[in-house]
Design brief:
By secondary structure, the protein is α+β, with helices and mostly antiparallel strands. The protein has 2 domains: 40 residues, no CATH class; 87 residues, no CATH class. The chain has 5 helices and 3 strands; from the N terminus they run αβββαααα. A 3-stranded antiparallel beta sheet has the order 1-2-3. Strand 2 and strand 3 form a beta hairpin. Helix 2 packs antiparallel against helix 5. The chain starts with 6 loop residues before the first helix and ends in a 16-residue tail after the last helix.
Length: 137
């Protein structure tokens, strides 16, 4: 099977060691095909016309919220839980706000620091359990 050499544009070559995942189909159609790590699978799904990630690596849908917005809110307003409110985690946001108020801000930075790390590495989830992966909304 002949495929382009750039795994991020049109999928990996069979001799390439690209990680398993969904890539643009090697036949040039506007679909994605699953690469198992050593061969192409038969499963197909539509490609995103916007270039945004629509599906997490585990096959679940991705949050429509912007990862960049969540990261900036967590960095600058994280002690007040604003980033949690943004992704729909109202209870978590209220907890972060309460900790900040009750401790006069002394411990209000710990929880957002953890959240900043989770957002940066791509494992932060919204209120529906979907990964927040797209840097653009």
């Amino acid at each position: 099977m002949s495929t382009p050499s750039n795994p991020h544009e049109s999928g990996p070559q069979e001799s390439n060691t690209a990680p398993p995942g969904w890539y643009a189909a090697p036949d040039g159609t506007r679909q994605q095909r699953y690469w198992s790590g050593n061969s192409w699978g038969e499963a197909l799904r539509p490609a995103s016309p916007t270039g945004l990630v629509l599906w997490a690596p585990d096959g679940s849908p991705v949050s429509p919220k912007s990862r960049l917005v969540v990261l900036l809110l967590a960095i600058f307003l994280g002690a007040f839980g604003v980033h949690s409110f943004y992704v729909g985690k109202v209870g978590v946001g209220l907890g972060q706000l309460a900790i900040t108020i009750l401790t006069c801000g002394i411990f209000g930075w710990i929880w957002p620091l953890v959240d900043v790390t989770l957002v940066a590495v791509g494992t932060y989830r919204d209120s529906d359990g979907r990964l927040v992966l797209n840097w653009e909304s």
